[in-house]
Design brief:
The chain is mainly β and 236 residues long. Helix content is 3%, strand content 19%. About 4% of the residues have low confidence.
Length: 236
């Protein structure tokens, strides 16, 4: 026999559960009943273009107590305007070059003679020195050095051609004397510790004074490989 019992669900406030909407017909917008409302198309959208004038950006404000970086203004570059048909004058020619000053001729004593030349006043003549020279030290002393051992005295240094006769050397050194028998040179041989001994004597009038320096051993080795030749004025 079918049962006629009806079961009604109520909420605590006495209303129907789920707002009275049957199961499966709930919506987020609440309950509804009857057929759905008719479709209404949305209104047409009309776009309006609005033109706004640009507004200058505000000036930068100081940050942290510092002034903004100043804007640099380009520096105008001057441009030379040359009129049409005008040409600048040519540069003046350079001054003529001066010829180098000719060195003063040097005297043979004490000069570098090997291969050297001396120009004379005529500007075209030169003197070519001999190849071989001996180094001679000429003592300037009023006494003979062997008579005063250890004494100090002055002397001059000369490079003399080995081919020069001894007679000519006596004249060139300016040995004093009123007669040829009184004019001469004497070789001084150094023995060390300021001591000297008397060597060969050559006087102007003697036949042996016609010999050349190289004939008596005064060669190019004197003053280079060997000791120089020491000479003094001969005093009788």
């Amino acid at each position: 026999m079918p049962s006629n019992t009806r079961i009604h669900y109520r909420t605590r406030d006495g209303g129907p559960p789920n707002g009275g909407i049957p199961p499966g017909r709930s919506t987020a917008f609440g309950a509804f009943s009857g057929p759905p409302p008719p479709y209404v198309p949305p209104p047409a959208y009309t776009a309006h273009a609005v033109f706004v004038s640009p507004t200058p950006s505000p000036a930068p404000q100081p940050y942290g107590g510092c002034l903004p970086w100043p804007q640099l203004t380009p520096y105008p570059v001057p441009v030379m305007q040359i009129p049409v048909g005008f040409y600048p004058p040519p540069l003046p020619p350079p001054p003529p070059s001066q010829p180098p000053a000719r060195p003063e001729p040097k005297e043979p004593p004490g000069a570098k003679m090997d291969g050297a030349k001396i120009e004379f006043d005529d500007g075209i003549s030169t003197y070519i020195f001999p190849e071989d020279h001996a180094v001679i030290h000429f003592i300037n002393f009023e006494h003979q050095p062997w008579d005063h051992p250890g004494a100090e005295f002055g002397f001059t240094v000369h490079k003399v051609p080995c081919s020069m006769p001894i007679k000519e050397l006596i004249r060139r050194l300016g040995c004093p004397g009123t007669h040829d028998t009184q004019r001469g040179i004497v070789e001084c041989i150094e023995t060390g510790d300021g001591s000297w001994i008397k060597g060969s004597v050559f006087r102007l009038h003697e036949e042996r004074s016609k010999q050349r320096l190289e004939d008596i051993g005064w060669t190019r080795s004197r003053g280079t490989d060997r000791k120089p030749v020491w000479l003094a004025v001969y005093k009788s």
